Amino acid sequence: MDFQFATHIEVFLEYCRTQQNLSENTILGYRQDLRAFAKYILKETDPRIDGDCILEYMEDLRNRQGLAPATVRRRIVCLKKFFKWASKSLQNAPTPFEQLEIDLKVPKRLPRPIDRQTLRQLFVSAPRQFSSTATHNGYGIDTPFSPDYVTVLATRLLTATGLRIGELTHIKLRDLSPDCSRIRVVGKGNRERSVYVTNSRLLSDLKSYSKQRQDEQPESFLFQNVRGARLSEAAFRKRLKNMSAGLALPETLTPHRFRHSAATLLIEEGIDIRIVQRLLGHASIATTEIYTRVSDNSLIQAISRADTLGQIDPG
């Protein structure tokens, strides 16, 4: 069929943005996945888009590129969504999935929270204070906040609230309540929710941080890079990697593992799972329930305290 796949990618993404109200992070992921398929098609000597093409592409993703099952699934699901739209919106658009029955199930992996000892080591060792005087950062901006201080403040906020990295880096000054105890965030599907800061030390640090920024526009991002622009997700991940190495932590830290830690710590402290669901912004409680499978610490402690066998067989 005469169908120029690559020429319709941006049209589809605009449909996702304006009619489906998908987040910019989702749009970015779709663009990357669709461009990857377009690049694959260009390499083919006979670039027909049919069922065989899809199956061969899956084989290429799995074996030649060696991508993880979850990544393969995401790319194929993205293609299915694109061709479903194309079949309704474009003339002569192929429907390569029509005769396919593809099993896209991915074995569920348990979340990997950061253990308490590593978190304690991070927060004890890393910078916690900002300078009382502004210092020049080399980009024409005077600030009392070092990049390490901002990074650690962000990781503490992640641990306390379970925010996604995209939610964290898009918080603006106007999203903080006057006392900094409540933060408005925009999650997946542009759903708004509030998270709360109750830890006294973190709350005090946020207040001091926001006070130093009070002369800035409300639209300014809460966490900035050294140039005064929004701290990007990629830059934050790089900072965590460098910090992990610099502090000789036993494992490399990632933003999402802080989210896993936030949920697991709350479950271990006996917080109702429905409250954890609301805090994390999960649409379904089934997504939150996975944390009950990794939260064994409280279970072990309870069993140890009870020691039922010891009561009847003291030895």
Molecular structure report:
- With 315 residues, the protein is mainly alpha-helical.
- Helix content is 52%, strand content 4%.
- It has 14 helices and 4 strands.
- The protein has helices spanning 9-18, 24-43, 51-64, 69-89, 116-125, 147-161, 165-169, 200-212, 233-246, 255-268, 273-280, 285-289, 297-306, 308-312, and strands at residues 135-136, 142-143, 182-186, 192-196.
- It has a two-stranded antiparallel ribbon with strand order 1-2.
- Strand 3 and strand 4 (192-196) form a beta hairpin.
Total beta strand runs: 4
Terminal Cα span: 80 Å
Can you tell me the overall shape? Answer: globular
Structure classification: mainly alpha
Widest beta sheet: strand line-up: 1-2
Average residue-wise pLDDT: 84
Count of helix runs: 14
Helical percent range?
Answer: 40-55%
Main pleated-sheet profile: 2 strands, antiparallel
What order do the SSEs take from the amino end to the carboxyl end, as H and E?
HHHHHEEHHEEHHHHHHH
> What Rg is obtained from the alpha carbons, in whole angstroms?
24 Å
- The amount of beta strand, in percent, is under 5%
Query: What are the segments in which pLDDT stays under 50 over at least 5 consecutive residues?
Result: 129-142
